[in-house]
Design goal:
about 650 residues; mainly alpha; Leucine-rich Repeat Variant; 39 helices; about 70% helix; about 0% strand; identical protein binding; cytoplasm
Amino acid sequence: MDIDGLSKALKGDLRLELKVEDYIASLNALVNETDKVRNAEDVEEIIIRSIKDHSTSRAHFLMMFKQKPDRFLDLLGDLSSRAISAIVDSFKSVDDTIPLMLEIKRRIRAKKCRSDGLLKLVYQLLERYVYKFEDIVFLAEELPFHLESTDIRPLVLLIFAQLDNKYKRTFNEKLLDVFDTLTIEADADHTESMNAILNTLSELYPVLTNICSEAFLSEELQTVLKRKILRNDSLIKKGLQLLSVACIDESVRKYIAEQYFPIIEASLSNNELKLHSALVLVKTWSFSKLKNTKVKQLGNIFIQNVESNDEREQEIAVEGLAYLSLISSVRNGIRSNGNVCLELVQLVVDEKTESCIIYGILSLLANLSTFSDECTPEQSSINSLKAYAELKNPVVETQTGKEEEEDIFAFIDDYIVDLQVIGSLSNRLKDLMPSCRDQFVKLIYNATRKRHFISECVKQGATKALLGYLGNMPIQIQFRLYAIRALNSILINTNPKLLFNHYSPLSTVPYLFELIPGRDGNDNEELLNALTTRDSYEALLALTNLAATDSADSLSKLIVSDPQCWSKIMNCILDETVQIQRSVLELLSNLMAYPLHIAAKFLILAILQVLRILTYWLNYCALEISNLKELLLRFSPT
């Protein structure tokens, strides 16, 4: 059977058993007929089935592939995911892949890497096998020249991350050597090498910060950057982008503020550069160094570009505003600009908006909706930055701008609640990046801090969104705390019977108990340090509300059967805060509709001392809780 016959057969009855000889003959023909153009999909199917259907044809393919990897790569064209997986599966050992790696090296050096298929193949090979570093060192040497392409760029970053993970010390040393070589070439006016430096550092900084900072701060590179980049119109934007992303490192941020600030501020007069320059100035957070510019002017530059048709400019504008929104006077200015607020909301609810822009806008909206009595870790950090920036000038502009609570209230009402931001994003929560989900949860938390907004937040799906978010076990404790506190507020201020169409009311209980500290050392220490008495008090109120529903029996069983939950209840009974004592007794009172669970727990534990303390606090608080009194009388010693 020839190639055409086999291709037709493969498209027909899947149950048809084809002879191994047909596969081998077709593979031989494909390699040898260099003068005929074949349909890439047909070729791919023959190769994949040759690998998967018969061990003999698989072995034959591997033998031929090792001999002529160039021919097979030509035949397969852009390399689909199916083809890549089949090829990688066909190898028996790392040695089998060396001829392919040599061909990949040749193609990358010859700039024949125009699609992402070849690099996907490289990435899968690196995942599967451990190579000698000398066999793959060409990746560190050549890939910096391929970062111009937006299609290839993400894969280059993944490959570098894999190299760093498997060959960390050797790879880092080699990467520094590569930067040294590129710096020498850039100094000799090789523009391609300068572009490779700027692109590689800009892209790698977020994932390989330490090694990038070492390269960036080297005397040789700094000499080249200062002499060439900031005075070359074709490279200056890339240079500013590098300075912007390098601010992720505190030591580098300070260095940029000291060494580059005057040049960057001067470039604000250039319409082509002012947006990029403004972002660098903001990210250095050294406003006391500004000579002829006010913070408000930087904010206006970003505001003017929020509606830009250029996606990159829009991204920069949003990022800049997100940073500046940590300053109260800027927050006041943005909230008073209805056009900008409306544009931000329209962008964040638009499913076509890029994730990086959504993240920036959600961060911005979260800052704009934060009430002044809320002191977040982010704001504490920025206060430290401001203190550093203001050492030489304590009367700097960032200190001004008192916020009025009614302005924040009106902003949430007009732009978050009325424009259905929570409803829109709740419907596609799973599609958002984790960092976007974090900021979205903070936005819900801000809105639910005021009772006026809670019912509308619930209608827009806030409860389901919060439970979905918590179910995915968010890593950052602060945002987990935002989510639980928001859930708490909803449970306290809403009839629980109306909340749970998709979840059981009991699904909230483990999260509520996270707000009640224990004494057994099982609580997350970071979370424990962030808890307040109000958290515990409101968690008990929420549990009390749940105990008034049809789930009270199940809730009672859950609490008494979980040693950690019961221990926390006992701690609350013995707490020094009257509010906590009163709340936990109210909770137990509501659970007395199903008294056997609670009574049995007291009997099993035989904690007569606790019963005496309960009696004491009951009298002390003058609580009229008949069910609990009855329980105490029933089980107290005579």
